[in-house]
Amino acid sequence: MGQALREAHKAYAAGEVPVGAVVVREGRIIARAWNQVETLKDATAHAEMLALTAAQVSVGDWRLEKCTLYVTKEPCPMCAGAVVHCRPERLVFGCADPKGGAAGSWINLLDANPPLNHRCEVVAGVLGGESLALLRGFFREARERNKSGTGNDSPDLEI
Hints:
Strand order of the largest sheet: 2-1-3-4-5
Strand content: 15-25%
Largest sheet: 5 strands, mixed
Radius of gyration: 15 Å
């Protein structure tokens, strides 16, 4: 999770919502990414989506069996759906997202949903305080910029 936090700091430095993700297979990081929605002008460029795609390239298959996805914030429904389709064995995340989290906070697409073909183990709260502090700091600064008329504050996470 420490490596995912390093990725989140890269997002923060780039003016992106500070979320980072890494994919680990057999004890080795095979992919890493940070949110790049604004950078790439792509609404799907969440850290999880980019890390999962990079991991698939690394593995040479769309199935991410024997993999763990570490992400600093609970995945949204889009990212949780991608996790279901990529089939990693485990998801570990930092802070919960009560407003839009899809790994148990708002809804749970990763477990106890019979129509879906894959379930993965979910571990929540790992370095959650650090992840939440980074997000809160980012949104606090965004609100301050917005008040002064120098930024566009449109957070997707209520912190």
